[in-house]
Amino acid sequence: MADALVSPEWLAAHLDxxxxxxxDLRVPADxxxxxxxxxxxxxxxxxxxxxxxxxxxxxxxxGLLPEPAHLAALFGxxxxxxxxxxxxxxxxxxxxxxxxxxxxxxxxxxxxxxxVSILDGGTRGWVNAGRTIEWGAGNVxxxxxxxxxxxxxxRQDSAAVLVAASGKTHALVDARSASYFxxxxxxxxxxxxxxxxxxxxxxxxxxxxxxxxxxxxxxDLDALLASVPKGPVISYCNTGHTAALxxxxxxEIFGRPDVTLYDGSMTDWxxxxxxxxxxE
Length: 280
Description:
The chain contains 10 helices and 12 strands. It is α/β, with parallel strands linked by helices. The strands form 3 sheets. A 5-stranded parallel β-sheet has the order 1-7-6-2-3. It has a 5-stranded parallel β-sheet with strand order 8-12-11-9-10.
């Protein structure tokens, strides 16, 4: 089984492997296609996290899992086939960028793709290691629509979160900064500020080295998430974006079972005024 996180050294040693599908995933804030065409890892295919629809907006909730048919077409257009080992390549600019790759990783997994990894440090780490780069539009080795097979055990909706919060059956882990958790700030789409009662604050940004854009060492990650108790976990944030990084570390790096993502998160939770919100 492939590691969930691979190093530039690992990728350099396997770059010519025919089973790899390299996906250069960029958020608009990091320059999008222009930045990709300026420098990317050889063979990497560009994907725009926003424009390609890795997340889907329904009403006032912007971060939901897209329909399987959309993802089947997207995966195929990017050259992803079931036998491929997908390497998601963030830009390497920081926590927000890495969270996009974590969300794409979760999306591939929930749609039934077996072998996925994220390049630690992304393109910046690759360049800083003195590795070869390409520039220009790149090639897109299209594949047929992907035979998606939605899998259980990855996702929670508001009804399940309400049961979990009321019954205290899961640890609720809030990936947002302290100002959002305490209700001093809120996402524009959220109708109320605060957090789900009983949640643990675990700011996702603390998991990433801001200088390199890579995850911090395992010992640091253990310490940063030490407040998360054993047992089932639901990770959430505002839109299911930053929470994907906490999910990735807890589930894929720590190997903890029963870690799920509430993709609707606070923008979905607060649409119904009967759902409780706390600022304490």
